[in-house]
Design a protein that fits this description.
This protein is an alpha/beta fold. It has a single domain, classed as Spore Coat Polysaccharide Biosynthesis Protein SpsA, Chain A (Alpha-Beta Complex). About 40% of the residues lie in helices and about 15% in strands. It has eight helices and seven strands; from the N terminus they run βαβαβαβαβαβααβα. A seven-stranded mixed β-sheet has the order 3-2-1-4-6-5-7, sandwiched between helices. Strand 2, helix 2 and strand 3 form a beta-alpha-beta unit. The N and C termini lie far apart (about 50 Å). The relative contact order is 0.17. The chain binds guanosine-5'-triphosphate and magnesium ion. The site of magnesium ion (MG) has 5 residues, from loops. The site of magnesium ion has 5 residues, from loops.
Length: about 240
């Protein structure tokens, strides 16, 4: 059996109702591509990992990584990515807010257009961020984009995107530099070696969350703020010990 061309890493916490529909959606979209999906679950009380295991028993494209005693989106993504072997790694939310059809364009960007990383953007023509739940979330998202672009010089229209695909070699080179704390793994990857990745952006219509709840707590926002400040000072004072 041929090995997968792409490993799709899905961090999930309390997403029990979204797992089955997400696997169905990937099956419908990625018909001529060999893929696998790895759900990385932090021992969700709603039994997310049990649903993953049931699906995995009948579908070799589905895998689960069950972490106990730990929480965190970024570290879940890093461990999922390091547990896989395909030449392309994609990272996608497990709440159906990311449009899986973008994956095809991301793969083409990497295999045919010379990109190292392909990022789904809500802020280029054809994209939309209407799925953000309210005005406050729009405000936070715009604030994060401003900080990443202006303070950290991240050259992306949507640096807050959690949906992207990257060449395995580029991920592996940066893996040891990734902190693993926090919520925004894309920013961490971009900042690990600034200016060295060939980027391609694909438009994404960000969807509403239909099942389950957002995990974007105040604590998560605080840790994001800390990350921006730490990177800003590292850039401004490269020899400091921030
Ligand atoms: N393994 C793991 N996954 C997490 C954790 N926190 C969030 N996730 C998952 O990461 C993905 C994104 O989380 P969301 O809460 O939807 O955050 P968001 O999409 O940025 O924000 P919303 O627009 O509010 O939904 C979802 O699949 C979550 O289940 C965590 O601590 N561990
Ligand atoms: Mg979400």
């Amino acid at each position: 059996m041929a090995s997968p061309e792409i490993s799709i890493i899905v961090p999930c916490y309390n997403e029990v109702e979204n797992i089955g529909p997400l696997v169905d959606a990937l099956e419908t979209t990625l018909t001529d591509i060999k893929w696998e999906v790895i759900f990385v679950d932090d021992n969700s009380p709603d039994g997310t990992i049990e649903v993953v295991r049931k699906l995995a028993q009948n579908n070799p494209a589905v895998r689960g990584l069950h972490r106990i005693g730990r929480r965190g989106l970024s570290s879940a993504v890093i461990e999922g990515a390091l547990s896989s072997s395909a030449n392309i790694i994609a990272v996608m939310d497990g709440d159906l807010q990311h449009d899986e059809s973008c994956l095809r364009d991301m793969i083409t960007a990497i295999t045919d257009k010379g990109a190292d990383i392909a990022v789904a953007s809500r802020h280029i023509e054809g994209g939309s961020s209407n799925g953000l739940s309210d005005g406050w979330r729009h405000f936070l998202s715009q604030g994060g984009i401003w900080a990443a672009q202006k303070l950290l010089n991240v050259p992306l229209t949507d640096p807050m995107s959690g949906f992207f695909a990257i060449k395995r070699a580029c991920f592996t080179e940066r893996a040891a530099l990734l902190g693993g704390q926090g919520f925004k793994i894309l920013l961490d990857i971009m900042l690990a070696r600034p200016g060295t990745l060939k980027i391609h952006e694909v438009p994404m219509m960000f969807r509403n969350r239909l099942h389950g709840k957002s995990k974007l707590s105040h604590g998560v926002m605080l840790s994001f703020g800390r990350m921006i400040i730490t990177h800003f000072f590292k850039k401004a004072l490269p020899h400091s010990r921030t």
